[in-house]
Amino acid sequence: MRLSSLVVSMTLGAVTAGLVLALGSSVAPAQAQLAPTPAQALAAPAVENSEAISEALAYIRTQQQPDGGIDAFGMGLGSNEGGTVLATLGLAASGRPVSWMAHPATGKTMVDYLAAHAISYTHQTTYTTSDYLFPQQAGYLLVAVAAANEDPTSFGGMDLIAQLNDTYHPATGAYSTTASEGFFTGKAEEDNQAMAILGLSAAGQPVPLAATDYLINSQSAAGAWGFDDPDTTAMVVLALIGSGNVQPTDAVIQKALGYFRDTQLPSGGWRPSWDTDLANADSTGWVMQALVAAGYTPATESWAVPLNPHQALLNLQDPVTGKIGGTYSNAYSTAGALIGLTEQPLFFLDRTHRALRALTWLGEIQNADGSWSFFGSPDPGATCDAVLAYASAGFDPYTVKASGSGLSAMDYLSASASSFVTKTADSAGKLALAVESAGGGAHDFGGVDIVQVLTSTWYSSTQGTFGDGGNSWHQSFAMLGLAAAGESIPPSATQALRDLQNVDDGSWTDAWGFDKPGSTGLALQALTAAGVPDTDVSVVSGTLSLKSQQNAEGSWDAFGSPSANSTAYAMQGLLAAGEDLVVDEWLKDGYSPYDALATLQKIDGPFVLAGSDNDFATLQAVPALLGVPYPLSDTELVPFVGVDRGPDPDRLVIVRPRASFGNSVDVVIPFGSDQDGDGSVELNWRVSGETTWVTGATAYRADGYYTATVPVTRCVGYEFRAISSDTDGVQYGTEITDTVVFNTKLEFFFLPLVYRRVK
After folding, report:
1. How remote is the C-alpha of 315 from its chain's centroid?
2. What is the tens place of the pLDDT at every residue in 460-478?
3. pLDDT for position 536
4. Residues 446 and 413: beta-carbon distance below 8 Å
5. Of 520, 517, 594, nearest to 561 (Cα)?
6. Which residues of the chain have pLDDT under 70?
7. How far, in Å, CA of 369 to CA of 378, rounded?
């Protein structure tokens, strides 16, 4: 267990009701209110901005032009590349597919516009090669292309990744060219460097250490970049953390966070030097991106002065049009606000990068014998799921080995094959499916002819069933295994699976009657693999069944809550049946099943079950996330190389407490991250100078903070000790450590009403 002990020393001189003090801050926060119980807080969404986000998106839609682009500045000048990129990022961060925002007359999307202008936007006029590339524009476009789940190696007639990498200079670490035109330049500078790194990170590409060192070495004394500009500083922080070369605990990030603290406005937002509004929507959105990347999720009470960044943006929203931005309000400022309100880091929006982090996480929990576990024990079934996950992403399962081990998943399965195939029919079928997906042969694997076992041991020619005749999973996996091995599936087997379909709603159920969506999706894959057309009544009714079971979030439930496992198999079944899951028919409030599945994944890779990292959910989610049904098609597999997963969002990121004084003391302890909700705070107090701590103040978890009311009213000095614990670690500043202690002493005076901090 990690503990962070925050000791706050306060002297209560003239106690003034309603006086509010922020420890370590020169701005008074809002009066603290009693928080709900932990159960209530965990049941509520972190930040509810859905209405504001929907209204902002509706406004941006009004600015879309027939070519698919966005009139970013509302001046009637037509579509703008930079504004369309930002709008694409806002749309993707909002969890909507790009196709959701298409011009009603032409059907063109923002991606259509960006593809048509990719070369002209990223290059000096008349040039197409990397020698005349603008790294900032290319990196910016690459972030959007990745977020839109497009292929960055072939977009608009160019390979964005290759061209951007060509501009890298190992000697200096800079991404730069000689390109120059108008306000654009390719020379080595912070804007070019930050956006090039962010683009490559968003596309899941490695970033050289020298490239991030270039930015680290150019940080100003104030902790900023870009002539102490909040926008550039935020982009740099996002790029550094997104690269995986820099952690939120590193001094360079903590110094930048100090700059954000020092420049945050009473409105809760930020603005560049030329702006005189209460906050600038674009600047605030970018800073919130940096805060989310650094672990402040949500960026609410941990950044309240007294208002928080979310409130700053919401206060800039026009209640009539939905646009966000104050004096300079337009589609550009609205899109900038969206990337803040959505709290989705831009380097983690594309499905390919998400899959890479998930597979890296899975690799870190692989057993030394090459297996993965299920219910704590090495398990061939879970290992088959892992093989399918890696192969679906194009990686060779034979190359996936635990650190320090020479055994792969296929070694474990080979050693287990003879016993596993005799366990159940679906075991044999899943093994055949996994072996063929890894490039092996199901007729001879581990000394076993899996196909023969399926057809002789498990198949009943008289009934057409495999294994337990009443189990759709046995039937489906056996059929999928045969199809993967290139074997024909007996018509009687196909009919037997049809016969297991529930006539009342078109679904299939597992042997226990629990997972209708997953069972239905698995059966649809098996029927399609058997050659059943998508017009067949069994496929049509199965598809309609999944449509009726889809929940309001766009996913599918198991045991009454959204399930990554059920959603994954349901999606794969629909994809096998020829369904397009990003068209209106499958969208819920604009969210596709892909987007819904993504909400069940944490930023460091794993998918969750009941809020906690879950290997089984992660194993089964990856193929669906990538849009790949079973059986997998034959593709060339490459060795797997993991990526940096970033910091654990389950750690507790503690911020200095603050307190308000009246008839008692209300202490607020803001925090970030702790997505699994297992952090806790114990608050103790004592009269200054005494040696014994008084315990008993319960700290309740709320939206971004813990709070406790301490019944102390004597006009004497008090010390408060907040002990924060989390099994995933407690971060405070530059450390994730067991104990962090700081002392603050406050003295109060009557007239004028001021306070000063004594060091």
Report:
1. 26
2. 999 999 998 889 999 999 9
3. 97
4. yes
5. 517
6. 1-48, 298, 511, 659-664, 696, 712-715, 738-759
7. 9
